[in-house]
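One such given next:

>
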Amino acid sequence: MRAMAAWAPVGLGHGDVEVTDAAQVLERLEAVAPDAVVTCAAFHRVDECERRPEEAFRVNALGARNVAAACARLGACCVYVSTDYVFGGDQDRPYVESDPPRPLNVYGASKLAGEFLVAATAPRSLVVRVASVFGVAGARGKGGNFVETMIAKARAGERLRVVDDLVMSPTYAADAAAVVAALIRDGHGGVVHAANAGACSWFEFAAAIFRELGWEVPLERQRTADTPGARRPRNSALASSRLAALGLAPPPWQDALRRYLVARGHLDTPSPGILH
């Protein structure tokens, strides 16, 4: 594998390649001749996945297999970005890589199927599980991210009701990307959890956003029982039994949130680097 410094990242969006088209995936990747392919394509609107299970599996499982097959053909490492929703949420501690998955909804099941298909298809593969991702570019399929949604609603003076009975581990996209790059560089495979350290409810996450900004914003607690939609794990917090030993453990989510707010121009206070 070429040294990390020689890498030239190439971004292929949905307009460039359709992951459900195996021939097109191979054609596009052959043109790039990659050392590694990070598969971020996903149908991740959880409630809609319940209504469209065939589409969820077509994108999240078969689409992932198409990319893995192309990687196998080209000798590239296939990195599959997965989710905390592969877990059932019935334990009181964060999930580590060795915990058995038990998805509660179609989205989680389709992503778990994608994990299995990637591992079975690509000789060199890496599954990276993240959760509740927030990044500068936002999520195209969701119209942004939770942080920006909270800020926009607060500025508009909207009523803010936030779920307080689901616990997760927020993931700053920049931190997860740094972990992925290091894992590829050092030739690691298997399953890795790359969420930021710690856990919180969505209500606690929203409160932390406004606390960092120094805003006094009224928040109302909401229970998942009061919201329609797919079943979600009560506790899907992630921890890694692998990254600390490799010296790649991401920092706490509170630190990640502050750096994100600085990067977006919401704050002007600098903070430590990405990896400890």
Remarks:
- Residues 14-263 form a domain with the Rossmann fold fold (CATH 3.40.50.720).
- The mean pLDDT is 91.
